[in-house]
Structure formats: C-alpha cells, structure tokens
Write a structure and sequence with these properties.
By secondary structure, the protein is α+β, with helices and mostly antiparallel strands. It contains 2 helices and 5 strands. The protein has a 5-stranded mixed sheet. Strand 4 and strand 5 form a beta hairpin. The longest helix has 15 residues. It binds zinc ion. The site of zinc ion has 4 residues, from strand 2.
Length: 123
C-alpha cells in the first residue's frame, strides 16, 4: 500500500448553532488540511498519483471554502459547521474529484487550530 499526503490551507468563518459557548459567535479559523490518499499500484512512472494532480483536486474543492462564511454554503444548510462535518465534506468532495484509477482518499486530517485536529476516514 502506498500513501501520499499533501497539505493545504484556507481561511474561513463560521459559527456553531445550538451551542452554548463563544463559538456560537461568528469567528474565523486558519484551517490546515492534510489529505492522504492510498493505493496499491504505481503507474509506469513509479507514482501512485502525480502530486500536481492531487493538489489540483484538493484546491478545486477548497476554493469554495476559502474566505467563505461556511454557514452560508448549501453543504451546511442542515448541519453544524463543526471540524468533524467539514472534514467529512472535504473527504467526499475530493474523493469525487480525484480522477486517479485505483487511488482512494484514505484520511482527512483537519486542523482548526495549531493544537486541535479532527481525523475522518471511511471504510
Ligand atoms: Zn470555530
């Protein structure tokens, strides 16, 4: 099994609904996302997937979140913008966009602050 990880960053605003604490107020984070993909076969060049292709898929997804108020996005019309929900959303959207046969998103590690991260995996 081969794993590749790329790190991307974006800034966004959010607030938590039905939450008793200061995060109920609109505020921002400098999010850091580590996207890990996995697969068992390398191409004829010896790559699982070109880092440039992986980064492009990640940037396509994250562009919608950068400098946005995440609460206003349709993905979060019904769900709270927690780090957990955001990591799951990023996982699935990158999975849909990554056109690399035999390569799956393995893990999203989303840092809301330097000290606090959530990890999302499926399967
Ligand atoms: Zn927050």
């Amino acid at each position: 099994m081969y794993l590749l990880t790329v790190t991307r960053r974006f800034c966004a605003a959010h607030h938590l609904r039905d939450y008793d604490g200061k995060c109920a107020n609109l505020h921002g984070h400098n999010y850091r996302v580590e996207i890990t993909v996995a697969g068992e076969r390398l191409d004829e060049t010896g790559m699982l997937v070109d880092f440039a292709i992986l980064k492009a898929a990640c940037d396509e997804v994250l562009a919608r979140f950068d400098h946005a108020n995440l609460n206003e996005l349709p993905e979060f019309a019904e769900r709270n913008v927690t780090a957990e929900h955001l990591a799951q959303t990023i996982y699935r959207q990158i999975g849909e966009r990554l056109a690399a046969p035999g390569v799956e998103v393995s893990e999203i590690r989303l840092y809301e602050t330097e000290d606090s991260a959530t990890i999302y995996r499926e399967g």
